[in-house]
Amino acid sequence: METNTRTQSTIKQMMAILAVAAGCGSTAPLLPAPGSAADRLEKDLDAAPAWVREDCRAKMSQPGLCAVGIVAGIRNPSLARDTAEIRGQAGIARQLTTLIEEVGRDFEDAVSENEHGQEGQHAESARYHRNSVRIIGARATKWWASSTGVLYAMVVLETNGIATTLAQSGGITPAVRAEVTRRADRLYEELREGAGRP
Predict the structure, then answer these.
(1) 158: left (phi over 0), alpha (psi -120 to 50) or beta
(2) pLDDT tens digits, residue range 20-60?
(3) How big is the CA angle at 164 (ends 55 and 137), to the nearest 5 degrees?
(4) pTM, whole model, 2 decimals?
(5) Residue 129 belongs to what H/E stretch?
């Protein structure tokens, strides 16, 4: 009986860790440090840089994608930095996967009755590889630690990194790569124009 209780406790702990790991990227909920009050975290965020509080793409110097990786409760500074950076990379991977899926849907919509046409090949390329993206060249460019012990990392993947990532994914056609990169650049430009350039 005691072993069952320990096993259930271990499973619950693992599920909590996985839930925290899944909650990364620029749209993830903020994670308070253990024992900190929500109002204290809110005050911390008042002092946070704009890239933590807003869309981090507005603070990029080059076109591309970015995400904010967040970690709390890790005392080892090196491990905390690595974890925050990995979570930011995971956020970028989700964004890139979304773009690949959008391109695939658009190509599928454009496919004529001839399923073996060029558009059909592009759609198949995007559909097959959308879940196999491994990010290459993403790196943390900014760091911020709140007084509650939450560490934030702004991770960026610039246009050349997007192209390299898609090329290394294998099998993605040049047309899909070009269109995904173009859409990432367009999202960046639209956001910068809306926010006003520095």
Answers:
(1) beta
(2) 344 444 444 444 445 545 666 677 788 899 999 888 988 88
(3) 55
(4) 0.68
(5) helix 118-129
Which residues are CB-contacts of 69 (< 8 A; sequence separation ≥ 6)? 24, 25, 83, 84, 85, 86, 87, 88, 89, 90, 91, 140, 152, 153, 155
In the predicted structure, residue 7 carries a pLDDT above the cut 80? no
Structure tokens, 165? 């990532």
**Does pLDDT of 171 surpass 80?**
no
- The answer to whether residue 96 scores a pLDDT higher than 70 is yes
d(CA 140, CA 83): 11
What's the CA gap between 171 and 113, in Å, rounded? 23
SS (H, E, C) 138-164: CEEEEEEECCCCCEEEEEEEEHHHHHH
- Strand order of the β-sheet with 139-145 is 64-71, 151-158, 139-145
> What's the mean per-residue pLDDT of the chain?
75
C-alpha triplet 164, 172, 132: angle, nearest 5°: 80
Q: Which two tokens stand for residue 82?
A: 């690595």
